[in-house]
Amino acid sequence: MKNIYKILFGGLLLVTVMSCNDEFLENEQFSTTPQNVTSVGDLQALMYGALVEARDVTYYGRDMIIYGSVRSDLAYNTVASGRFRGPSQFSMLSTDAYARDTFTKIYQVIAQLNIIINSDFQDAARANEIMNVKGQALVLRANAYFDLLKLYGQEHSGGTLGVPLVLAYSGTGSEKPSRSTLVETHAQIAADFEAGVTSISNSGLASSSKDLINIHAANGLAARYYLYKGTTQADNASLQLAYDHASDVINNGSYTVIGADLYVNSFAQNKTSSNSIFEIEVGTQAKLGTTSIAYMYSDNGYGDINALPGFIASFSAVDVRADLINGNNVDTKYPLIDGSNSIKILRYEEVLLTRAEANLRLGINAAEADSDVNAVVTNRDLPAYAGITLAETLEERKKELFFEGIRYFDMLRLGMDIPGWTPAGTLDNTYLYGNTKLAFAIPQRELDVNPNMQPNPGY
């Protein structure tokens, strides 16, 4: 299998392009470079293609979400099917398929986005559309590098290295990039988010689409990133940006918190829930089947990823969120066992909780923080808070976003030690903050073909 840099740089890049229907179903394969883009339709097709790559099971279709759940205080892996043993037990090697395949897939997504970003195609009559799709690509590239940083960067494992920053398609195949520093990686992510938000905003094209990046999805994803950076680095400027981007969504979007009566069923809806900001469409013809996250979570599938008893017990008896848990299985956040559900990447509730946390850390407006958190909890059949604390806000975030791929990375940004669990759900080990195992291995395949690539310690 080709090294990722040959996928990115070598010869003509094979791009998966999807037509613009509701399910991205009509696959068309063709080879393209930035110079081959000759229409707005080409750019839009490349965008759909990037989203198709992102829904692969090695990225958002399963693995990224499971990594963020099973390496935490929420879940354990029974390993009944043998899947995710290495990631869940912190026993991966540099030859591990999970570390390799997710690394490769995210860079494949970036490769397609780079073609959009670097295209010099112009059409004066459709300049705003070009600006908009390039803005979407910048936001998605920022998010992709953010995901790479969270998995492979050394921010929480005692080092200073981030990930390789591949920003252009060169066509030579000769590049062997080294890893950028954490500082450089963060700078690129922030630059892409800001440029993407600006481009989408300046395009003047308003969109209510939930399966493409509109201005609210762009701001919401940026807020998620800046909250991570701000808490990891005790950086108030980033926390302010998290607050500002979240406020833009709250003040200018038309989203609402889903009510308690509709909460459980809302996860079965594709692109229609009032709280959904961004989701990746799958559909019946592209369903992920037994490889899907639904199959890993459900007791009607493999059911390997179970909620920990202590976490289940933390819910109030009247908290509707507990209704998502069936025994130890969480099979209603991804309810369709055939894997045809849209993958919900960003919900309005997260944006409210992000603003509340940034607000409390900065001491901006305590009443507003109360209001943001209460908008969530009162719609979960719980009483409102008065004078909510940071600890209470973090607990509500944990309960609201469980099994959505958020918790592990929240624990890391908060500087927490990470528990390791046996297949029976008992504590087996504790990985102290800074342990080298908190970063994934750089794939051995990359190390073998690129002498400039630096490994992560401990592998």
From TrEMBL:
Subcellular location: Cell outer membrane
Domain SusD-like N-terminal: 91-227
Domain RagB/SusD, first and last residues per copy: 339-459
Keyword terms, alphabetized: Cell outer membrane, Membrane, Signal
Domain of life: Bacteria
Keyword Membrane: yes
CC per GO annotation: cell outer membrane
InterPro entries noted in UniProt: SusD-like_N, SusD_RagB_dom, TPR-like_helical_dom_sf
Gene3D superfamilies named among the record's database cross-references: 1.25.40.390, 1.25.40.900, 2.20.20.130
Family: Belongs to the SusD family.
Protein name listed in UniProt: RagB/SusD family nutrient uptake outer membrane protein
Species of provenance: Bizionia argentinensis JUB59
